[in-house]
Design goal:
This protein is an alpha+beta fold and about 230 residues long. It is about 20% helix and about 25% strand. It has helices at about 1-5, 50-60, 75-90, 100-105, 210-220, and strands at about 120-125, 130-135, 140-145, 155-160, 165-170, 175-185, 185-190, 205-210, 225-230. The longest helix has 13 residues, at about 75-90.
Length: about 230
Protein backbone atom coordinates (compact mmCIF):
# COMPACT_ATOMS: atom_id res chain seq x y z
CA UNK A 1 0.00 0.00 0.00
CA UNK A 2 2.86 2.37 0.72
CA UNK A 3 4.25 1.56 -2.71
CA UNK A 4 0.92 2.42 -4.35
CA UNK A 5 0.51 5.75 -2.61
CA UNK A 6 4.17 6.66 -3.13
CA UNK A 7 3.92 6.57 -6.92
CA UNK A 8 3.93 10.06 -8.36
CA UNK A 9 2.42 11.34 -11.55
CA UNK A 10 5.87 11.94 -13.01
CA UNK A 11 6.55 8.20 -13.07
CA UNK A 12 3.30 7.16 -14.75
CA UNK A 13 3.37 6.01 -18.38
CA UNK A 14 0.21 5.45 -20.45
CA UNK A 15 -0.57 2.02 -21.91
CA UNK A 16 -2.98 0.78 -24.58
CA UNK A 17 -4.32 -2.70 -23.71
CA UNK A 18 -6.76 -4.21 -26.21
CA UNK A 19 -9.31 -5.33 -23.65
CA UNK A 20 -9.85 -7.45 -20.58
CA UNK A 21 -12.55 -9.40 -18.77
CA UNK A 22 -14.37 -7.96 -15.79
CA UNK A 23 -12.99 -8.88 -12.39
CA UNK A 24 -14.88 -11.78 -10.91
CA UNK A 25 -12.75 -12.56 -7.88
CA UNK A 26 -13.00 -10.82 -4.54
CA UNK A 27 -9.53 -10.95 -3.00
CA UNK A 28 -9.27 -10.50 0.73
CA UNK A 29 -7.36 -7.29 1.43
CA UNK A 30 -4.28 -7.50 3.61
CA UNK A 31 -4.86 -6.29 7.12
CA UNK A 32 -2.93 -3.32 8.43
CA UNK A 33 -3.12 -1.03 11.42
CA UNK A 34 -5.34 2.00 11.03
CA UNK A 35 -4.29 5.34 12.50
CA UNK A 36 -7.91 6.38 13.00
CA UNK A 37 -9.35 5.48 16.40
CA UNK A 38 -12.27 3.05 16.43
CA UNK A 39 -14.36 5.44 18.52
CA UNK A 40 -14.51 9.18 18.70
CA UNK A 41 -16.43 12.31 17.83
CA UNK A 42 -18.13 12.92 14.50
CA UNK A 43 -15.83 14.89 12.21
CA UNK A 44 -17.07 17.44 9.69
CA UNK A 45 -15.98 20.48 7.74
CA UNK A 46 -13.98 22.95 9.85
CA UNK A 47 -13.13 20.59 12.72
CA UNK A 48 -9.48 20.49 13.86
CA UNK A 49 -7.52 18.11 16.05
CA UNK A 50 -5.27 15.09 16.33
CA UNK A 51 -8.14 12.79 15.35
CA UNK A 52 -8.42 14.65 12.03
CA UNK A 53 -4.67 14.27 11.53
CA UNK A 54 -4.98 10.49 12.08
CA UNK A 55 -7.91 10.33 9.67
CA UNK A 56 -5.97 12.17 6.98
CA UNK A 57 -3.09 9.72 7.31
CA UNK A 58 -5.46 6.80 6.69
CA UNK A 59 -7.10 8.58 3.75
CA UNK A 60 -3.67 9.08 2.17
CA UNK A 61 -2.79 5.40 2.68
CA UNK A 62 -6.03 4.32 1.02
CA UNK A 63 -5.68 6.66 -1.96
CA UNK A 64 -8.53 9.02 -1.12
CA UNK A 65 -6.10 11.88 -0.52
CA UNK A 66 -2.89 12.58 -2.47
CA UNK A 67 0.48 11.76 -0.89
CA UNK A 68 1.58 14.03 1.96
CA UNK A 69 -1.87 15.65 2.31
CA UNK A 70 -1.51 15.66 6.09
CA UNK A 71 -2.67 18.18 8.65
CA UNK A 72 -5.04 18.75 11.58
CA UNK A 73 -7.96 20.39 9.72
CA UNK A 74 -11.05 18.75 8.24
CA UNK A 75 -11.06 20.91 5.12
CA UNK A 76 -12.80 20.63 1.77
CA UNK A 77 -10.29 18.07 0.49
CA UNK A 78 -10.97 15.81 3.48
CA UNK A 79 -14.71 16.19 2.97
CA UNK A 80 -14.39 15.04 -0.66
CA UNK A 81 -12.07 12.20 0.36
CA UNK A 82 -14.55 10.96 2.97
CA UNK A 83 -17.31 11.20 0.36
CA UNK A 84 -15.21 8.96 -1.92
CA UNK A 85 -14.77 6.48 0.96
CA UNK A 86 -18.54 6.50 1.52
CA UNK A 87 -19.19 5.92 -2.18
CA UNK A 88 -16.81 2.98 -2.32
CA UNK A 89 -18.20 1.41 0.86
CA UNK A 90 -21.85 2.07 -0.15
CA UNK A 91 -22.49 4.31 2.85
CA UNK A 92 -24.63 7.46 3.06
CA UNK A 93 -22.81 10.14 1.05
CA UNK A 94 -22.72 13.20 3.28
CA UNK A 95 -18.97 13.89 3.57
CA UNK A 96 -19.16 13.61 7.37
CA UNK A 97 -16.94 11.13 9.18
CA UNK A 98 -19.23 9.36 11.62
CA UNK A 99 -19.75 5.88 13.06
CA UNK A 100 -20.31 3.98 9.80
CA UNK A 101 -17.29 5.58 8.10
CA UNK A 102 -15.15 4.77 11.16
CA UNK A 103 -16.12 1.10 10.90
CA UNK A 104 -15.28 1.08 7.19
CA UNK A 105 -11.89 2.74 7.46
CA UNK A 106 -10.79 0.43 10.27
CA UNK A 107 -10.72 -2.38 7.71
CA UNK A 108 -8.29 -0.34 5.57
CA UNK A 109 -9.76 -1.72 2.37
CA UNK A 110 -8.23 0.10 -0.56
CA UNK A 111 -10.51 0.33 -3.62
CA UNK A 112 -9.69 -2.25 -6.27
CA UNK A 113 -10.11 -2.11 -10.05
CA UNK A 114 -13.16 -3.50 -11.78
CA UNK A 115 -11.04 -4.83 -14.67
CA UNK A 116 -7.91 -6.98 -14.44
CA UNK A 117 -5.43 -5.53 -16.92
CA UNK A 118 -2.15 -5.26 -15.00
CA UNK A 119 -1.02 -2.31 -17.13
CA UNK A 120 1.01 0.75 -16.31
CA UNK A 121 -1.67 3.43 -16.14
CA UNK A 122 -5.38 3.67 -16.76
CA UNK A 123 -8.58 5.05 -15.30
CA UNK A 124 -11.98 3.63 -14.46
CA UNK A 125 -15.17 5.68 -14.10
CA UNK A 126 -17.66 3.76 -11.96
CA UNK A 127 -21.04 5.27 -12.80
CA UNK A 128 -22.97 3.44 -10.09
CA UNK A 129 -20.57 4.58 -7.38
CA UNK A 130 -19.81 7.96 -9.01
CA UNK A 131 -16.10 7.38 -8.51
CA UNK A 132 -12.98 7.87 -10.61
CA UNK A 133 -10.23 5.31 -10.00
CA UNK A 134 -6.70 5.94 -11.24
CA UNK A 135 -4.90 2.63 -11.52
CA UNK A 136 -1.24 1.71 -11.82
CA UNK A 137 -0.60 -1.96 -12.47
CA UNK A 138 -3.36 -3.66 -10.49
CA UNK A 139 -3.35 -1.05 -7.71
CA UNK A 140 -5.70 1.88 -7.30
CA UNK A 141 -3.51 4.87 -6.48
CA UNK A 142 -6.31 7.48 -6.32
CA UNK A 143 -10.07 7.33 -5.79
CA UNK A 144 -11.88 10.62 -6.42
CA UNK A 145 -15.59 11.45 -6.14
CA UNK A 146 -17.15 12.60 -9.39
CA UNK A 147 -20.46 13.65 -10.89
CA UNK A 148 -21.06 12.22 -14.35
CA UNK A 149 -23.72 12.89 -16.98
CA UNK A 150 -27.32 12.58 -15.85
CA UNK A 151 -29.59 10.19 -17.73
CA UNK A 152 -26.79 8.25 -19.38
CA UNK A 153 -25.02 11.39 -20.56
CA UNK A 154 -21.66 9.70 -19.94
CA UNK A 155 -21.79 6.56 -22.13
CA UNK A 156 -20.19 3.34 -20.94
CA UNK A 157 -17.30 2.06 -23.03
CA UNK A 158 -13.54 2.09 -23.48
CA UNK A 159 -11.87 5.34 -24.54
CA UNK A 160 -8.55 7.13 -24.22
CA UNK A 161 -7.55 10.68 -23.31
CA UNK A 162 -7.26 12.45 -26.65
CA UNK A 163 -6.58 16.09 -25.75
CA UNK A 164 -6.05 18.30 -22.73
CA UNK A 165 -6.41 21.95 -21.80
CA UNK A 166 -5.72 23.68 -18.48
CA UNK A 167 -8.67 25.99 -19.15
CA UNK A 168 -11.09 24.84 -21.84
CA UNK A 169 -14.05 26.91 -23.04
CA UNK A 170 -17.34 25.11 -23.73
CA UNK A 171 -19.00 26.89 -26.66
CA UNK A 172 -22.20 24.92 -26.20
CA UNK A 173 -22.68 25.67 -22.51
CA UNK A 174 -20.66 28.89 -22.37
CA UNK A 175 -18.61 27.93 -19.35
CA UNK A 176 -14.91 27.49 -18.58
CA UNK A 177 -13.79 23.96 -17.82
CA UNK A 178 -10.57 24.07 -15.79
CA UNK A 179 -8.04 21.23 -16.07
CA UNK A 180 -9.95 19.43 -18.83
CA UNK A 181 -8.89 16.02 -20.14
CA UNK A 182 -11.08 14.95 -23.09
CA UNK A 183 -11.59 11.22 -23.60
CA UNK A 184 -14.82 10.83 -25.63
CA UNK A 185 -15.35 13.60 -28.21
CA UNK A 186 -16.56 16.56 -26.13
CA UNK A 187 -16.73 14.61 -22.86
CA UNK A 188 -13.93 15.39 -20.44
CA UNK A 189 -12.76 15.12 -16.88
CA UNK A 190 -12.63 18.67 -15.54
CA UNK A 191 -12.76 20.65 -12.35
CA UNK A 192 -16.07 22.12 -11.26
CA UNK A 193 -17.20 23.98 -8.13
CA UNK A 194 -20.35 21.85 -7.75
CA UNK A 195 -19.80 18.10 -7.60
CA UNK A 196 -22.96 16.46 -6.20
CA UNK A 197 -22.90 12.87 -4.98
CA UNK A 198 -25.09 11.78 -7.91
CA UNK A 199 -24.91 12.26 -11.69
CA UNK A 200 -25.68 15.88 -12.56
CA UNK A 201 -23.63 17.05 -15.57
CA UNK A 202 -24.49 17.24 -19.27
CA UNK A 203 -22.03 14.41 -19.91
CA UNK A 204 -18.62 15.47 -18.65
CA UNK A 205 -17.12 13.95 -15.53
CA UNK A 206 -16.91 16.64 -12.88
CA UNK A 207 -14.01 16.48 -10.44
CA UNK A 208 -13.75 18.60 -7.25
CA UNK A 209 -11.69 21.70 -7.93
CA UNK A 210 -9.37 20.80 -5.03
CA UNK A 211 -8.29 17.66 -6.94
CA UNK A 212 -8.71 18.82 -10.55
CA UNK A 213 -5.12 19.86 -11.24
CA UNK A 214 -3.72 16.68 -9.70
CA UNK A 215 -6.03 14.49 -11.81
CA UNK A 216 -5.16 16.49 -14.93
CA UNK A 217 -1.48 15.75 -14.41
CA UNK A 218 -2.08 12.06 -13.72
CA UNK A 219 -4.00 11.42 -16.96
CA UNK A 220 -1.69 12.15 -19.92
CA UNK A 221 -2.84 11.91 -23.52
CA UNK A 222 -3.27 8.24 -24.45
CA UNK A 223 -4.41 7.09 -21.01
CA UNK A 224 -7.03 4.34 -21.29
CA UNK A 225 -10.40 5.24 -19.73
CA UNK A 226 -13.04 2.59 -19.00
CA UNK A 227 -16.51 3.93 -18.19
CA UNK A 228 -18.36 1.17 -16.33
CA UNK A 229 -22.09 1.17 -15.61
CA UNK A 230 -22.20 -1.39 -12.79
CA UNK A 231 -19.26 -2.30 -10.56
CA UNK A 232 -18.92 -5.34 -8.31
Amino acid sequence: MRVATGITAALLVAAFPAGAPARTDAPTPKTARAFTAAHGRTLSLGVRGRDVRRLRRDLVRLGYLPPRAFGPTYDERVMHAVTALQKWENLPRDGTFGTSARRAIRRLRMPRPELQLNRRLRAEVLLDRQLLLIIHGDHVIRAVPISSGVGGGTPAGTYSVSSKSPNSWSKRFKVWLPWASYFNAGIAFHGYPDVPVTAASHGCVRVPLKFAREIYRQLPVGTRVDVITTSF
